[in-house]
């Protein structure tokens, strides 16, 4: 009888030890996921990863083919954070997505563009033409601004919905006459003879890319989010101090030559920590003012129906705490 009791007692001892060890072991924490498309303004995040600035951080950068994929992944919660344009952040907030804007990654100053086939030399000539555009807020915003400048309306053209990764192939197949696009596709189209008819320089300060985080990430992972920002800032410093080496790092991911990376970067501003502090805290000239102006423009063009509380959307605490 005693021998029969030994096995269960031994088993209980092992199970008890296993439970005890499990209780003492660190709880598994899944990596913080940050999603982006291949836009040049997000490259400092990947440069930081390549230079080892995120080593040891429980972080995973997720490279997606288009803005549409990034937004969808953020909506369903498979991403904790994402790099998006400010107008896209407004649309997400309008949907009730629990996100906050934490950081300004870049301000487009020419890198977003409407590019047309060589035979089309003026915006007015877009009448009746097929224009490719990604079905995102930025695509709609850029196209609407270009049409306004041309004196055209949406019904004057044929819209061809195209994710970013199909812009170049559709151009080569002559499936479109023009396209609203951005780097790296922009560079490729210009090198095949495309003409820029309208760029973000024509609407200064209105195409802003920001870092957003879901509330669940803010609740659990503030130190990791601060690491993301700190690594991006170190990468910007590396870019300023050693631009040639930085371009070499960036070129393979962009699929262009290093000198083309330099050209693409010339079309954007990359705010440092000091500028971010100013942008996120100044209600009169910073991001809050830009957001109010953007909300008004989007409402006038029926791109935004019920504007979110911008004061609640924009958080300045990470910018205030970041090292200059």
From TrEMBL:
Keyword terms of this UniProt record: Signal
Main location, first listed in the record: periplasm
Gene3D superfamilies for this protein: Periplasmic binding protein-like II (3.40.190.10)
Localization: Periplasm
Keyword check for Amino-acid biosynthesis: no
PANTHER family: ALIPHATIC SULFONATES-BINDING PROTEIN-RELATED, TAURINE-BINDING PERIPLASMIC PROTEIN
Family named by the database record: Belongs to the bacterial solute-binding protein SsuA/TauA family.
Name this polypeptide is given: ABC transporter substrate-binding protein
């Amino acid at each position: 009888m005693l021998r029969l009791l030994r096995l269960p007692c031994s088993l209980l001892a092992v199970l008890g030890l296993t439970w005890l060890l499990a209780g003492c072991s660190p709880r598994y924490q899944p990596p913080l996921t940050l999603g982006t498309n291949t836009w040049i303004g997000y490259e400092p995040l990947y440069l930081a990863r390549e230079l080892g600035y995120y080593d040891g951080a429980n972080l995973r950068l997720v490279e997606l083919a288009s803005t549409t994929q990034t937004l969808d992944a953020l909506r369903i919660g498979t991403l904790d954070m994402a790099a998006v344009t400010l107008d896209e952040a407004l649309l997400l907030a309008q949907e009730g997505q629990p996100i906050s804007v934490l950081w300004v990654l870049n301000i487009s100053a020419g890198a977003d563009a409407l590019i047309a086939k060589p035979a089309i030399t003026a915006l007015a000539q877009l009448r009746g033409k097929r224009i490719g555009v990604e079905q995102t807020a930025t695509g709609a915003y850029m196209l609407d601004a270009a049409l306004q400048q041309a004196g055209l309306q949406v019904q004057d053209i044929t819209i061809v919905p195209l994710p970013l990764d199909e812009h170049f192939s559709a151009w080569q197949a002559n499936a479109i006459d023009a396209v609203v696009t951005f780097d790296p596709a922009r560079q490729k189209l210009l090198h095949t003879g495309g003409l820029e008819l309208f760029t973000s320089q024509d609407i200064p300060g209105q195409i802003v890319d920001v870092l957003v985080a879901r509330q669940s990430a803010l609740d659990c992972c503030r130190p990791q989010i601060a690491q993301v920002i700190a690594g991006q800032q170190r990468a910007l410093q590396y870019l300023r101090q050693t631009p040639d080496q930085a371009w070499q790092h960036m070129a393979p991911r962009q699929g262009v030559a290093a000198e083309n990376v330099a050209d693409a970067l010339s079309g954007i501003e990359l705010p440092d920590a000091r500028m971010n502090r100013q942008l996120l805290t100044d209600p009169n000239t910073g991001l809050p003012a830009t957001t109010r102006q953007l909300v008004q423009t989007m409402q006038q063009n029926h791109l935004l129906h019920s504007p979110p509380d911008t004061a609640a959307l924009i958080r300045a605490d990470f910018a205030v705490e970041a090292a200059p």
